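Re: weekly structure request thread

Next one in the queue (214 aa):
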Amino acid sequence: MTGPPPARPGTEGEARDDADVITQSLDEPELFAGLYDRHAPDIHRYAARRLGEGPADDITAETFLIAFRTRDRYDTAHRLARPWLYGIAANLIGKHRRSEVRALKALARTGHDPVAASWSDRSDDRLAVQAPLAGALAALSPGDRHVLLLVAWADLGYQEVADALRIPLGTVRSRLNRARRKVREALSTDPAFTSAFDATPATTGQELNPSWTK
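Done, posted below.
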């Protein structure tokens, strides 16, 4: 006689965390869909901010395909899978780094690029802010840009970024400090950023938050 695995003591009726879902999906692959439902919207949103809506669809799908295929190697000591999933997504985004930098430079130069529409619902009202920011991001190294945007756009903590990118915590701190310094220096010399930011404090989103530079 076969049936669902027995509930662990004390967990009946409780929501399964990511590690449980991954472990149980080894025997019941369909359960992995729960991980997708839980995290795919955030992964897609992050990828769209980096590369635009079109590539984000492919990156999100491939992120979860890779996660599904490698789930037997997942370290269940990490009960939350967000860093793991963002790490996979970051690797995939890294393959598009030339396209990302090209789009950022286009936005910085012309004040218009399709990717900008993914940054904010009011992108047209904030191009004066986005253009100098795009230029600053384009000038960062790929590693520094990954760290900065995982903190600023994915809202990962330092240790989570370290886990996602598989780098030491000290490297995360040094890359983040360097990226913040370069962005601060680039934006502080651009009067368009200063005036636009000061004029729209109520509509400024996390992606333009001055705490990036602190």
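Residues 21 and 140 are 37 Å apart (CA to CA). The chain has ten helices and no strands.
Next request, please.
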